[in-house]
Structures are given as C-alpha cells and as structure tokens.
Specification:
The structure holds 2 protein chains of 2 kinds.
Chain A (H helix, E strand, L loop, with lengths): L4 H18 L1 H4 L13 E6 L15 E5 L26 E6 H12 L13 E11 L9 H14 L19 E10 L2 E9 L6 H21 L2 E9 L3 E4 L1 H6 L8 H15 L6 E8 L6 H15 L5 E7 L8 H9 L5 E6 L4 H10 L4
Parallel strand pairs in A: 6-7, 6-9, 9-10, 10-11
Antiparallel strand pairs in A: 1-3, 4-5, 7-8
Helix pairs in contact in A: 1-3, 3-5, 7-8, 8-9
Chain B lengths: L6 H16 L7 E6 L1 H9 L10 H15 L7 E4 L4 E6 L4 H20 L10 H19 L1 H13 L24 H6 L14 H4 L2 H20 L9 H8 L4 H22 L1 H20 L5 H12 L8 H17 L5 H5 L3 H6 L16 H12 L2 H8 L2 H6 L2 E6 L6 E5 L2 H12 L6 E9 L4 E7 L7 H15 L3 E7 L2 E7 L4 E5 L12
Parallel strand pairs in B: 1-3, 7-8
Antiparallel strand pairs in B: 2-3, 4-5, 6-7, 8-9, 9-10
Helix pairs in contact in B: 1-4, 2-3, 4-12, 5-6, 5-11, 6-11, 12-14, 14-17, 18-20
The chains are: A alpha/beta, B alpha+beta.
Chain lengths: 365, 520
C-alpha cells in the first residue's frame, strides 16, 4: 500500500543514488564491496547526507550513565545523556542498495547503452506457479475459501444451512487443493569466459585489480541478461579451467603462453554454448608479456578464426606490471585493430577501472 | 489509512480514561488510531503528524525506522502529539495488554502537554497547521521546482535550532520594518530621574543646572548610539532576525517562517523529555497495577514495562530516570524529607528514617497525599533542567548507581570517572541546558557598516565543533548574501570565523579587529 511518505522515501533514495553516482569513480575502487557479492543487498556508507548545524565539538564528550563500575572501569556503551542530546553523531549513513540498482547507476553514469541480446531465446527457465485447482492433494495445499464455499453451497442446497446458527461441516467431496503448473519462460542468456594470466609477473596487486574489474563487468552483464554463466580459465604456459575462488587466488610461476588460454576458451565455448543461443563474452586479463612473438600471432589467428565470429565482445584488459613488457596489446591492435568485437583497455591503478568499464561497454555489444 | 479501532479497545480506552480522571489527570479528548508497522514508521518519521511538507529527511527517517523494526532493534509502541484533541497511535500487532498500557501512558502524556507551563504557548491546533504548511510548501514546489525549494529547506533546517525558547513567554515581537527605529526613546528626552529630590530653595545646589545639562547631553548621545546599534541588543532568535532583515524572496520568507514556527512548537518537547516520559511511565504503572491488569496479563505487562525502563549498563534511560525521580519526590514529600532542617542534617542514618511514620499507609487516590500533591505541582511548573537542579539528591544518585564518564584520551574508550554528586549533577545540567544546543546570538547586523552579519557563540563550558560551524556559516551566507561572521572561543582562544560567499577564513580576535555592536 502506498503511503504518503513513500514520496519522501523515493526522493531520499534518489538523492543517495545521486551521491553514489557523484562518487562513482571512487566507488569502483572499493574492495569492501567484493565481500558482499551474492547477497542481494549491499550496505554502502554514503557521505554527505548530513545537514550541518551549530553544535558542540568532541572535546566535550562524556556524560552520565548508570550501572556498576569504579573510576577507571570502562563505561559499557558509549552514550548516556551524552553531548548533543541523545543519539547524534558524525555517523556515516549506511544505505542498502541492491546489485541491480548499483549496476543501473553504473550504466547511467557511464552512459552505457542497454545490450540487445541476440539469439532466439530458446533457452528457457522453468517456474512453478500455483494457479490451478484440483480435487485431491496433500493437506498442506488445501484451499480453504474454495472448500468452504463448496461446503456452504452443498448445505444450502440440501437445506442443512441455518443462518441463525451457521455451522459448516466439510465433507470429503468439498475439499479443493491448490495445484501448480510449470511455466516456461524464454530468457536471454550470456556466458562470460574470464581468462587470467597467472604467471610469475602477475602479483597480488594486479589480481586485486582484476577482481574489482570482474565484479563490475559481472554486475553490468547481470543487469542486462536474465541468465548468466561464468567460466574461469587461468594460464601460464598451459591453461586450465578453475572455479571462481581459485581464479582469484591462484599463484603460479613461470612463463606465459597466451595461446593456451585462447585454445581452451575456444573448446569450452564450442562444447556447450551455441552462438545462436548464447551471448558470449570473453575477457582476458594479462600484463601483456607473452613468451614469443609467434605465439602472439597464433593468438590473433585463433581469435580471428574461431572466437571473434561467435562472440559479442572480446575484451582485453592489460594490467601494468613491473615485470612485463606489455607488448601483447600492441600485437592485438596491429592485427585486429579493425575488428569491432575486439576492445582493449589498460588498467594501471584502481582509478582506471572506471574508464575501462566505460570502454568495454560503450559500444553496447 | 488506518483501521477502525476495534470495539473492545474503544471500550478499554474509555474505561482507562475514567480511572485516569479519577486520579486527577486532566487531558484533552484523545483520539486513538490503530496502525501497522509501515504506517507507524511513517507517523514517527513525520514526528507524530499525518503529513508534513515534502522533504527527503522524512524518507531517510522512515527507512531507518523500518530497518530497525525489521531487524528487531527497536519497536515504537506509541506516538502521541501535543494537540487539542490529542492524537495517539497504537501498533496493531501489539497484544491487548500492551494497548492498555500504552493508552494509560498516552493519557498521562496528554495531561503533561495540557498542564505543563512550558507548553502553555504552543499551538494546540498544530495538526491543521502542519497540513497547512505542507500545502503551502507544495504550492511553492509547483511554482519554483522541487530542487530549488528543497535546497532552500535544507538550509533552513541547518539553522532551525537558532531560536529563543524563552521568547515564547515574552510578548512576541511584532514583525517590523527595520527602517523604523525606536523614535520614542530618543525624542522624549532623558528620564527625569537625573534630578535628585530637593526642596525648591536647595534645588539650585543639589541639582546644579550645568550638571543636569551635561547629563542630558550624555543621555542623548547614548540614545543616539543605541539607535545605530543594530540589533539593539544581542538576539538569540536568529531566525526572526533573518526573516526581518535578510534579502529573501516572499516565498522563501514564508517557508522560513513555517520552519521557525515548527521549531518553536517542538522546543518544549525537547526541554521536558525526562519529565514527560517519567510522568507517563509513573501513571501507566499506577493505573495498570491498580485498576486495569487482569491476572493473566501480569507477566506480559511486566515484560513490556521493564523493557521500557530497561537500562543497558552505562546508559541512561529518560523513562527510568524520570519515573524514579517522581517517585523519589513523592516519597520525600510524604515523609517531609525536604526543607532547611532536613538539608542541614548530615547524619545518614537519621536521614534514612526521617518521617517514616508520616508515609501514607493506604493506597492514595489522585492528589490525596502531600507527595502526590507535590508531583502534580512539579509536572506543571518544571522542565528537565529545573527538575534535576532542584530534586536530584546525593541519595538518589547513589541509589540509582549513577556515574560520570569521560573519554579516556589514552585508549579512546569511555571510562567511569567518578560518582561524585556535585560533578554528576553539574554534568547532567550542562548537557541538558538548551537541549545541548550552543547559545548563538546575533550581535551585529551591520558589521563594519558594510551590511555584514556577525554572530557570537556564548561560551558556557564547551567549544563549538569547528567543521560544523564553518559549514553552517556557509548556509547562513546563502540567506544573508553578504559576508557572515561567527566569533567563538576555541581552546580558550578568541577566534572569528568568516565566510564571504567564496572563501572561508578564520582569524584570532585581537584588539585591532573591529568589534561588533555588542560583545558578549
């Protein structure tokens, strides 16, 4: 039911979202958000929603409390009739916001176009909807009102009903139960293949950047597609598929052969994800240091022949590393610079994430 | 919006009202409404009224309350407003015994609102007034746009504590044009009190003409000075000053005057929180246990009641403090534990036994004992500060286990400092005075003869928060349009904060700096 205060409430939410948008660049660098993935609502501290007024400062903090304790003992709880009246303070406001809303803010601020999913939407999701009735079923599904009405009707018709002393008794044949129908809903789907170079040159800092970037890519794509599957591939000289946890944690050593990852990605995609049904996104994170020129050229070949024809977007994100030569991005530009589906970006620090996301998704693929 | 009150609650409310009146409570007719959790949160966010002017802070408060309720962190049992008739709201998923407790509690609140002198000047038709404010603001929103109006209201709210609660009891200043000074004083001539009484033949010696002439000249000079001092004396009602002299549009002045009205309406509630809650708790307890509780309700009642009065160690609960102090006063006046003789006695044992035989042996109804008579009187005349100042005793402080705490600079944590009565009393009074808001005065409306506004903080033991002060000065400048200043003592140093519309600055106040019209 809509109350008058919902206007003020919506206004408040709007202002909060506005504040998040203002600070979006900073927001994207916040790693605390990562811990709350998977939960529907994220608590975000929002600054600046505070009306200033003349008040006492903190050097008058102290007050009167009630309880046990000798001088020097901690006063449990830190407010009593304290300064400023009762519960006032420099508290940061914590606001609950859903991942969807965050993604919306991201989209608005970065001016990202909505992705138009391709495919016949033949993949469907199943849902059970309890809209039907039937004559038999488990007691937990009994429908009281219908049953009651049938019993009432029967009693009236047979003259057993006494309006002055109404007393309805159910019989077996009065009982009605709820039943369900399985409904198929077509939905748009995407698969994201994340690939990361975990050779010696990728340190913890770089992995942190990748985590943050992957979080936001995920958030935006989830907003645009109803069903998302994610696959994770790590590689050094060889590639292997791993789960999400390992993807962000693994530590390898040694050289780098990027083509191994691309080959594995191709296998993964061809095995399960028909390009006609799925919207395929492939992201590769690396410091740009490949073992050999020839391998880099091979990567481009794999991309050109097998991957690019089927994917919506191939995103290459080069993180800066002290050890890497950072040449791979140049090779990509040289061979595939004209390809629409190839988008590259550099991320050296957390602040670059903002621009990187914008680069990847501005074309609206 | 709300459900019709069930028949049985209506009957209960009437029953309880009868008992309340029998006990001497005197209240306006009270209307009860039954609300669900969302509706209750709305009413609470709107500080008890069905509607307020549109503003996001009500939405913010609403979200906070819903979250609190959802996570089980706190439940609002009741809300009641100072109005004639009194409106009160009950939460629909409370038990019936809770409703009865709340109803009793509410009647006592209403009695307090009606009879306490600090409320005597408040608008008893505030519900209509709030609705009226809402309509006016909405009209301005339509005309000038939500953002503009909202930004203006934000600024007003920053300044809403700049009122003078005592001014409600002085003849309210009529809004006047600042160009009209006080012509009467200057033109009438100096008071005739310059003359000493003397017999006519001695007059020439006792009141020499040249002395009289000189005094008259001095007086006229003083009056001329007064006329140019603007304002004529330091003003705490900064909002009124702004209304009369700041370059505001008509609609802006209207909005500011509404916010000022509302601030004045709520001011007494802030000043009497402990007394009001204590009074209401005292009476719900008395009425329930004497007349209303059914046997099977006792346990649920106790749970509710003790929850209201619960005090987590280290905190102070105004309900608990208030009820205990009222009970203490009642006991003391029943046993004569007051007055110069009692105060002079310093034998603890004697004090404890004092007047025990005088205490009433049977249940007292209404004002039927000295103690009861006294608390009725107290509830009419005092506010939290005078309440504590007069009635807090060393015995009470000890009985209630009160202590003073401070933040330990080494650990940053709060620690118990002492249980010294004088210090505790002083601390409580300080924190309550002016509802813990700083005293801010307008001391010059034409500083440096350049139309600059100069405010001063009347230091009474605590420094201002600098960050907030600087931010608030900016808000002030938005209204005044010309540079604004605030003088304050920070760390024992006299500092002048200024904002000219672009830059904030602060400087040490020394004798070379031009003084404002009044120096506090």
């Amino acid at each position: 039911m809509l109350l008058p205060i919902h206007n003020d409430y919506q206004r408040f939410r709007k202002i909060v979202k506005g504040k998040i948008r203002e600070d979006l660049r900073k927001f994207l660098t916040r790693s605390e958000l990562l811990g709350r993935e998977g939960k529907k609502f994220i608590s975000i501290p929002v600054r600046g929603i505070d009306l200033p007024h003349f008040r006492y400062g903190d050097n008058s903090d102290g007050g009167v409390g009630k309880g046990d304790g000798k001088p020097g003992d901690p006063a449990d709880g830190d407010e009593g009739i304290g300064p400023g009246g009762e519960q006032e303070g420099h508290h940061l406001l914590e606001v609950d916001i859903s991942l969807e809303e965050l993604a919306d803010i991201l989209g608005e601020e970065l001016r990202l176009p909505r992705i138009k999913p391709k495919g016949k939407h033949r993949i469907t999701s199943e849902r059970d909807r309890y809209t039907g009735m039937r004559q038999s079923g488990p007691e937990s599904l009994r429908h009281f009102r219908r049953t009651f009405r049938r019993a009432l009707r029967r009693q009236i018709m047979s003259g057993l009903y006494n309006p002055d002393a109404p007393r309805i008794v159910f019989e077996r044949r009065d009982k009605i139960y709820r039943s369900w129908k399985t409904v198929l809903k077509p939905q748009s789907n995407a698969v994201i293949v994340y690939m990361m170079d975990v050779s010696g040159s990728m340190g913890d800092e770089q992995k942190e950047l990748v985590r943050l970037e992957a979080f936001w890519i995920d958030a935006w794509l989830r907003r645009n597609y109803q069903g998302i599957e994610s696959r994770y591939v790590v590689h050094d000289v060889r590639a292997g598929e791993v789960d999400r946890e390992t993807f962000f944690r693994i530590r390898e050593d040694g050289g780098t052969r990027i083509s191994s990852a691309f080959r594995l990605a191709r296998e993964l995609i061809e095995s399960r994800y028909a390009a006609t049904e799925w919207n395929i996104y492939v992201f590769h994170f690396s410091d740009g240091d490949n073992s050999s020129e020839s391998d880099s050229r091979e990567c481009c070949a794999i991309l050109r022949e097998h991957l690019l024809p089927n994917v919506n977007l191939f995103g290459y994100c080069q993180v800066a590393s002290a050890y890497g030569s950072g040449n791979f991005i140049n090779v990509l530009h040289e061979h595939l610079g004209h390809e629409e589906a190839v988008i590259t970006s550099r991320v050296n620090t957390k602040d670059d994430i903002y621009d990187s996301i914008k680069t990847f998704f501005s074309p609206g693929r | 919006m709300s459900r019709v009150l069930p028949r049985d609650i209506v009957e209960q409310a009437e029953r309880i009202a009868d008992f309340a009146r029998r006990e001497g409570l005197d209240f306006y007719p009270t209307v009860f409404e039954l609300l669900d959790a969302n509706e209750m949160a709305q009413v609470a966010a709107y500080t008890g009224f069905p509607q307020r002017y549109p503003h996001w802070r009500f939405g913010m408060e609403y979200e906070r309350l819903r979250k609190q309720h959802r996570y089980g962190l706190g439940r609002i049992y009741e809300m009641v407003i100072n109005n004639d008739p009194c409106y009160a709201y009950l939460l629909n998923d409370n038990m019936s015994v809770d409703h009865k407790t709340v109803i009793a509690h509410v009647y006592a609140h209403c009695d307090f609102f009606k009879n306490n002198v600090w409320f005597s000047q408040t608008n008893r038709k505030m519900i209509d007034e709030m609705a009226n404010h809402a309509t006016r603001v909405r009209r301005y929103v339509e005309r000038h746009g939500l953002n503009e109006v909202e930004t203006f209201v934000d600024t007003c709210l920053s300044l809403e504590n700049l009122i003078d609660p005592h001014s409600m009891f002085m003849r309210r200043q009529q809004r006047k044009d600042h160009r009209s000074s006080a012509p009467e004083a200057a033109e009438k001539g100096p008071p005739a009190s310059g003359r000493f009484p003397a017999k006519s033949y001695m007059d020439r010696y006792i009141n020499p003409p040249d002395r009289l002439a000189k005094e008259r000249a001095d007086e006229q000079e003083r009056a001329k000075q007064e006329k140019t001092r603007f304002p004529t004396r330091p003003l705490r009602d900064v909002l009124l000053f702004l209304l009369e002299h700041a370059p505001l549009e008509d609609w802006e002045a209207d909005v500011l005057s509404m916010i000022r009205e509302e601030a004045y309406y709520f001011a007494p509630q802030g000043q009497t929180k402990i007394m009001n809650e204590g009074w209401a708790s005292y009476w719900h307890s008395t009425l329930m246990t004497t007349y209303i509780l059914a046997d099977e309700e006792v346990i649920d009642y106790c749970e509710h009641h003790s929850g209201t009065l619960a005090t987590t160690p280290g905190r102070l609960n105004p309900y608990k403090l208030g009820i205990e102090l009222f009970r203490d006063i009642e006991r003391r006046w029943n046993t004569g534990r007051y007055g110069p003789e009692y105060d002079a006695c310093d034998n603890m044992a004697t004090r404890r036994e004092w007047g025990k035989d005088k205490a009433p042996r049977h249940r007292v109804v209404g004002r039927g004992s000295a103690g009861r008579e006294k608390i009725f009187q107290v509830r009419a005349l005092y506010n939290d500060v005078t309440f504590l100042d007069e009635f807090l005793t060393p015995e009470f402080v000890e009985e209630q286990d009160l202590f003073q705490y401070r933040r330990d600079p080494a650990t940053g944590k709060m620690v118990v400092v002492n249980r010294d009565f004088e210090k505790i009393k002083q601390q409580m009074l300080f924190l309550l005075t002016n509802h813990a808001q700083p005293y801010i005065y307008v001391v010059d409306g034409n500083y440096r003869n350049r139309g600059e506004l100069y405010l001063a903080h009347g230091h009474s033991g605590a420094d201002l928060d600098i960050k907030y002060a600087v931010a608030t000065l900016k808000c002030l400048q938005k209204f005044w349009k010309r540079p604004v200043h605030l003088s304050a003592r920070i760390d024992d140093d006299a500092v002048l904060f200024s904002f000219d519309g672009e830059q904030s600055s602060q400087q040490h106040i020394d004798k070379n700096l031009e003084k404002p019209a009044h120096v506090l």
